[in-house]
Design brief:
The complex is a heterodimer.
Chain A (H helix, E strand, L loop, with lengths): L1 E11 L2 E12 L3 E6 L5 H9 L6 E5 L5 E4 L11 H6 L4 H10 L15 H14 L4 E5 L7 H14 L5 E4 L3 H6 L4 E4 L7
Chain B lengths: L8 H31 L8 H12 L2 H34 L1 H16 L2 H11 L5 H23 L3 H9 L4 H39 L5 H10 L3 H26 L3 H4 L5
Helix pairs in contact in B: 2-10, 3-4, 3-6, 3-8, 4-6, 5-6, 5-8, 6-8, 8-9, 8-10, 9-10
Classes of the chains: A alpha/beta, B mainly alpha.
Chain lengths: 192, 264
């Protein structure tokens, strides 16, 4: 899959995050995106997903359906874990995805009853359950221990056979573990 | 270990709550009795015993139930219509800034205008029996509208963005995000509004004196200096208003969507 950024400009008030940014992203399997905090990784994901529009320039090749795992879990606190995931797919898929992330015993728990790491896995299960052509994951392993990180990476590796994944991470080891090519975003305005 | 004694914290706290309420009511009844003794004139201030006796006597008459039921019907009708109109207005003004700009001043004026002005105007415009319905309606609309508008505006934008990203249907966004988000504001608006509906509705009845109404009985009690009757009817209004408030709180507490999952 190719996503083409042509002379993209994006600013928040005075801060110019992208200025005349051009790049062709070739996404296959898992691609890791790294960079210092605040350099524009999340903004790049939002532009790719269509949740944000550039002030000028063009983004070509954005698929019809893109799944985003946000930096925040964004779970609905008034419904159970299973219901949260089942909002984006059928009940069976939701159960299957939750089992895959190791939450088979927590299907009917409420999000606020779970630890931060568990909530993160629910959000990941929801992202995996959502059918799309591209999966954008913004720091999906926040609050997970090393063993769980490995399990989730293995899960992503399996998933990457079905659709490309762009993984934002601060941990180079995570990218290396799955043999993903790494893109570094740096500078202000950002460049690759 | 004390054998044969099971500790039941829930029952214990219920008993304590009951005792607290009983004690509080007793203290206020004592204060009422002391004030009565200090005033010393039945025409100016009725004693709790006299009021209780009068209330018991009134309860045994068919007219009492007729007046109570008529007022209950009128005020409830105004309240429910006000709730519906308030919800509708809140949804419309949340959808359009133009509609918000159009309705906001009008609802502001309704909130700050003395209720007596509306009652007198309504008496000119409509039949006596309709005035309490209209006044209850008018008092309820701005309360529901203001609270619900705040609730809709304060719905978490991150959740709304998530709904957009995960292609939620309109129905899903409404039932899974907006409704649970506005429920606390709606609950507080409904309980506040019922008190206002009763107060304003009875005031409208006192001024417009429709046949078969609590307000007309209050007016008659004032004209004939029947202070015990005045107190007894006031007690009826207070009890009905409190009962309705409790019913609304009970109805809106622990809605099924919050219990779901936790029960399993």
């Amino acid at each position: 899959m190719k996503l083409v950024f042509q002379n993209v400009c994006k600013a928040f008030g005075e801060k110019q995050v992208f200025s005349d940014f051009s790049h062709t992203f070739v996404l296959e399997g898992i691609t890791a995106l790294m960079g210092a905090s605040g350099c524009g990784k999340t903004t790049l994901l939002r532009l790719m997903s269509g949740l944000s529009k550039p002030q000028s320039g063009e983004i070509l090749g954005v698929p019809q359906r893109v799944t985003v795992l946000f930096q925040e879990d964004r779970l609905l606190p008034w419904i159970s874990v299973l219901e949260n995931v089942a909002l984006v797919c059928d009940q069976t898929t939701a159960e299957k995805r939750l089992c895959e992330v190791g939450l088979a015993a927590e299907l009917h728990a409420m999000p606020q009853e779970l630890s931060g790491g568990m909530r993160r896995r629910v959000a990941l299960a929801r992202a995996l359950a959502h059918e799309s052509e591209l999966l954008l994951l913004d720091e999906p392993f926040q609050g997970l221990d090393e063993a769980l990180c490995k399990q989730m990476l293995a899960l992503l590796q399996t998933e990457s056979a079905a659709r490309p994944i762009l993984l934002v991470t601060h941990d180079r080891a995570q990218a290396q573990a799955v043999g993903a090519p790494v893109l570094y975003l740096h500078g202000s305005p950002a460049k690759l | 270990m004390i054998s044969g004694m099971a500790y039941k914290p829930f029952q214990n706290s219920k008993w304590k709550k009951g005792t607290r309420i009983l004690l509080s009511v007793s203290v206020w009844l004592c204060i009422w009795q002391i004030v009565y003794l200090l005033v010393g004139k039945d025409v100016l201030f009725a004693s709790p015993v006299t009021v209780a006796k009068r209330l018991a006597a009134l309860c045994c008459t068919g007219d009492f139930w007729l007046h109570t039921f008529s007022s209950l019907l009128g005020i409830t009708e105004g309240y429910l219509l006000g709730v519906l109109a308030g919800i509708l207005l809140a949804v419309l003004t949340a959808c359009s800034k133009w509609l918000y700009a159009l309705f906001q001043p009008m609802l502001g004026v309704i909130k700050s205008t003395p209720v007596a002005s509306f009652i007198i105007l309504a008496l000119v415009w409509m039949q006596k029996s309709t005035v309490p319905v209209f006044i209850s309606f008018l008092m309820v609309v701005p309360i529901i509208w203001a609270n619900l508008t705040t609730g809709i505006r304060e719905t978490d934008p991150l959740l709304l963005e998530m709904a957009k990203a995960y292609s939620f249907t309109r129905r899903q966004t409404l039932t899974k995000i907006y409704l649970p988000s506005v429920l606390p504001s709606l609950r507080s608006a409904l309980t506040t509004a019922i008190g206002f509906a009763w107060k304003a509705g009875i005031a409208a009845e006192v001024i417009s004196t429709p046949r078969n109404s609590i307000g007309a009985q209050l007016y008659n009690a004032k004209v004939y200096l029947e202070t015990a009757d005045l107190f007894a009817w006031t007690v009826v209004v207070v009890l009905l208003s409190m009962l309705f408030e409790k019913l609304i709180v009970r109805f809106l507490t622990d809605p099924p969507h919050r219990r779901k999952g936790a029960e399993k």
